[in-house]
Amino acid sequence: MTKLDLLAFGAHPDDVEIGMGATLAKHVTNGHKVGICDLTKAELSSNGTVELRQREAERAATILGVAARIQLSLPDRGLKNASSKQIAEITAVIREYKPEVVFAPFPVDRHPDHGACAKLIEEAVFNAGIKRYECAKQLPAFRPKQLYYYFINGYEHPDVTVNVSGFMDKKKEALLAYESQFVKSVDSVDTPLTNDYIDVVFARERLFGKEVGVQYAEGFMTSSPIVVSDFLAGKEQYNET
């Protein structure tokens, strides 16, 4: 099994691409292995079919250079009531792929599944490091170094930003792979996603970029304080404008 450097979880296929598609593409370009784990197949979505959404997800993963895309097939709109067995399945993914850094949706979001997903990932990250915790597979304990939250629909002042100025084209291409979700057609149901949603996402990343002096940035919240050895030893980029 491929060990991953970054592993991003989403409630539905397209969540990760919305929040941090450019960040994944940048890390792939830098030689890192990244993965996406979708908890559900989004079977209750207003547009498209499960089969089509899966094909779109695979295409988006190829565009971003994702090394592994995992589908857990948990029930759409059922994440809030996930069982201990289902949490163990998520924990097994973390232990199996051993990511250094894990990502989840920011909990404050208009879609309840996104907040529920965040809670499940918090549980799984903690469980993964407990030696005596039994997950869905017989795997040794492993604890990622950090858990970050990415934004889908919400907006907060981010704790951390990633300069993705050279990777927004990849992000847009990956999002447009989900034609059933983002492209309005004669037969499509009118949803927030079919009403210039990609433009709204780009405006957010442009604003994040402006705040740190770059063209585009994707923002993240931290689950715990970030430790630096000292304030002059790192490679932090400061906004001098």
UniProtKB/TrEMBL annotation:
Domain of life (superkingdom): Bacteria
InterPro entries assigned: Bacillithiol_biosynth_BshB1 (IPR023842), GlcNAc_PI_deacetylase-related (IPR003737), LmbE-like_dom_sf (IPR024078)
Gene Ontology biological process terms, A to Z: bacillithiol biosynthetic process
NCBIfam families in the record: thiol_BshB1 (TIGR04001)
Stated name of the protein: LmbE-related protein
GO MF, one annotated term: deacetylase activity
Cofactors required: Zn(2+)
